[in-house]
Design brief:
Length: 248
Amino acid sequence: MIIDGKEVRSGKKIEMHPPHDLAHNLGCYHQGDKTHVLQAIRAALKAKAQWANMPWQHRAAIFLKAADLISGPYRARINAVTMLGQSKNAYQAEIDAACELADFYRFGVKCMTEIYGMQPQSNPGMWNYNEFRPLEGFVFALTPFNFTSIAGNLPVAPAILGNVSVWKPAKSAVYSASVIMEILMEAGLPAGVINLVFVSGPAAGEVIFSHPDFAGIHFTGSTGVFQDIWKSHWRKYLGLQILSAYRG
């Protein structure tokens, strides 16, 4: 796992196998627990103020650099881990892991500049100005197994706009997620802005959805998982917020 810019090992090793060849052991990752989720949240909140106050041009430069790394020196590697870990062929990996992920980062920067450019008209003698601020708290990125590009985009899209993320990839996409994190760090992403944890869904949900600084979720996945999140966690969270507002 990568928490606060550092590798974190739990000692509980889980083997990784290609879906098309279950007898082939790609290696192991260290599975975390609720304590690691809390560490990730603390790291994100610690990094939040400095990241939010960073000039947007500097944030943009980091993700444009990451796109260049994906398109160039990391292209073969990000494709290879997608082929091995998620059973894609060379063509599928290329259009997903390399092309679309780089496009996501560049397009995200373009959208950011357009959002910041949305300013109201000002009459003579006055200046009306919109200030766009990140969310109060952290964003939980819960990402799928089938698209490396979506997995790499969900924690990054909020970060482009100054948010901080706790990222939990699908267990069958840990290999490609670790390479994406390596790329982001090489591109200059500050420690703690995105924290990558390998934990079970219940362990993540129990901690995150009850945390007072939970600001939002960025999710792509199955309908079943979404319904479980809604029934088990999100509805309870919303109910508490509505009850709190009513009592206030």
